[in-house]
Design goal:
Number of domains: 1
CATH superfamily: NAD(P)-binding Rossmann-like Domain
Low-confidence stretches: none
Helix content: 25-40%
Bound molecules: nicotinamide-adenine-dinucleotide, uridine-5'-diphosphate-4-deoxy-4-fluoro-alpha-D-galactose
CATH architecture: 3-Layer(aba) Sandwich
Largest sheet: 7 strands, parallel
Structural class: alpha/beta
């Protein structure tokens, strides 16, 4: 059983990962300031988790930019964590263009603060939420981890900056004064996980994605149109160089992603000092029109749409080469688009107002 700090544990991916980790027998402290989430998600995690797991999750309200909150989290974890899974951050591309300093503050300064606390408390194992957004406009599909890192928006710049900070940390050299000139490296075990497009929900329909305000991502928007909360989906561009003219993405079920974190945690924990950089995707692309059709089938509802101009900053294709994660972690995404739509719809239908809904 590993003792793990989960920053951002109440969020969309964090809550599903907490559940998977509890089911696997790990002990967790979730630190979250609930800036973009609700504490209700973790209450639901506890309700779904097996009874014996309930005592293994503690929740602390606090900000990763606050060193005292981090000290408090470490003391709640008994002074020492075996690992940290770091989800806390801001993730809206649009908002990052409007408020870049907030993104550098939370995503970069917050991560630096967390890393300082880890060093202070002798924890050197970290799983970090990076993003396929670091690839910007990829030259080659599917995208391998060796593709150039060339983000095209402030959100992507902050993820790339944290990736670089972690690479620098992993290659820190400690001069060993006693036996100069030899030098040693602290035993950092780091996984930089580049997620593609996480969607869907836990099959119980009790936890899921709960965006604040109008969703900017395709899946929650389509769900809300299917529910009748919004009149129509606006499809950003019908003239992309793709088979049906709409953008293609590699959608991955959030439960597969959560299981990828469990695999990464256990690989690092049981493995040597190393830094892994891995795509977490399915390796299969779907167009916007294909997603609309699959969602209509899963929900039995119609999803009216209209074509509008391309969204600035969008790329036509983004599809992972996930084979390195398979090799390193023995992990592959297993759930298909139908399952993503079915589970996402079960959540949305029963929670039209997200966690503000009754039930
Ligand atoms: P989310 O917004 O649902 O979760 C982020 C969590 O972090 C929230 O619970 C929020 O309250 C918390 N948080 C934000 N600022 C904080 C702070 N200063 N201190 C403590 N907690 C804070 O987002 P998500 O989809 O679960 O994403 C999790 C991580 O994965 C993020 O780092 C995001 O950038 C990354 N990511 C997400 C996607 C995606 O499409 N969902 C894709 C690639 C990468
Ligand atoms: N789209 C629409 N209409 C909408 C929303 C999206 O047509 O209302 C289209 C987009 O143009 C794109 C596709 O649907 O072709 C997917 O768009 P999303 O906004 O759902 O996802 P993105 O690939 O643009 O970006 C997401 C996250 C980023 C993350 C990236 C890779 O928002 O934070 O996936 O992980 F970096």
């Amino acid at each position: 059983m590993a003792n793990v700090l989960i920053t951002g544990g109440a969020g969309f991916i964090g809550s599903h990962t907490c559940l998977v980790l509890l089911e696997a027998g790990h002990q967790l402290v979730a630190l979250d300031n609930f800036a973009t989430s609700s504490p209700e998600s973790l209450r639901r995690v506890l309700a779904i988790a097996p009874p014996a797991a309930k005592a293994r999750l503690r929740v602390l309200e606090g900000d990763i930019r606050d060193p005292l909150a981090l000290d408090q989290a470490f003391s709640l974890g008994g002074g020492r964590f075996d690992a940290v899974i770091h989800f806390a951050g801001l993730k809206s591309v649009d908002q990052s263009v409007r408020e870049p300093l907030s993104y550098w503050d939370v995503n970069v300064a917050g991560s630096r603060n967390l890393l300082s606390a880890m060093i202070k408390h002798h924890c050197h194992t970290l799983v970090f939420s990076s993003s396929a957004t670091v690839y910007g406009h990829p030259h080659h599909i599917p995208i391998a981890e060796s593709a150039p890192v060339q983000p095209i928006n402030p959100y992507g710049h902050t993820k790339a900056a944290v990736e670089q900070m972690l690479a620098d940390l992993a290659s820190t050299v400690i001069e060993n004064q006693a036996v100069a000139p030899s030098a040693e490296r602290p035993p950092w075990r780091i996984a930089r996980l580049r997620y593609f497009n996480p969607v869907g929900a836990h099959p119980s329909g009790r936890i899921g994605e709960d965006p604040l305000g109008p969703p900017s991502n395709l899946f929650p928007f389509v769900s809300q149109v299917a529910l009748g909360q919004r009149p129509a989906l606006r499809i950003f561009g019908a003239d992309w160089p793709t088979p049906d003219g709409t953008g293609i993405r590699d959608y991955i079920h959030v439960m597969d992603l959560a299981e990828g974190h469990l695999a990464a945690l256990e690989a690092l924990w049981n493995g040597p000092a190393q830094m892994l950089t891995l795509n977490l995707g399915r390796g299969r692309g779907y167009s916007v029109l294909e997603v609309v059709k699959a969602f209509e089938q899963a929900s039995g509802r119609s999803v009216p749409f209209q074509f509008v101009a391309r969204r600035p900053g969008d790329a036509p294709w983004s599809v992972a080469d996930p084979s390195e994660a398979g090799r390193q972690l023995g992990w592959w995404a297993r759930r298909d688009l139908e399952e993503m739509c079915r589970d996402g719809w079960a959540w949305q239908r029963s929670h039209p107002q997200g966690y503000r809904s009754v039930g």
